[in-house]
Amino acid sequence: MTVREIAALVQGDILGGEEYQDRQVERIFASDLMSDVLTLKDYDNLMLVTGLCNLQSIRTCEMSDIQMILVVRGKEVTPEMLELAEDNEMIVVRTAFSMYKTAGILYGAGIPPVY
Question: Contact 20/89 with Cβ under 8 angstroms?
Fold first, then answer.
């Protein structure tokens, strides 16, 4: 499934990295704990679903080679976050849905979790 399709499923807005909206997402990992994100093994085409909305979440994705981020609960994504994401060729999507609802929708759509 593409990032564009995921954004439509969760009624999300693509905030940055629009040129990457046709990237394929093969797995989802949902967490607000960046220490958990850092323990992930190498997964290609992984999307992080998180409510942690700060530069640290972008930096963690950078270190973990995650290039697709879905921010939940309608959190405000700062211009600095978008600039750093752009520098790392990441796409950032935001939805007003909770993490629970977002993860349920994506799981129901057939995207497998990491575990």
Answer: yes
Query: Cα 95–99–100 angle (5° rounding)?
Result: 130
| Cβ–Cβ under 8 Å, residues 69 and 55 | no
Average pLDDT over residues 110-114: 94
27-58 pLDDT tens trace: 999 999 999 999 998 788 999 999 999 999 99
CA atoms in the 13 A half-sphere facing the CB of 83:
3
Single pTM value for the model = 0.94
Question: What fold does the segment set 3-108 form as a domain?
Answer: 3.40.1390
Domain spans of the chain? Answer: 3-108
Give the separation between CA 96 and CA 93, rounded to whole angstroms: 10
Measured in residues, the chain has a length of: 115
71 contact partners, CB below 8 Å, separation of at least 6: 50, 51, 53, 77, 92, 93, 94, 95
Rounded to whole angstroms, the Cα distance separating 10 from 86 reads 22
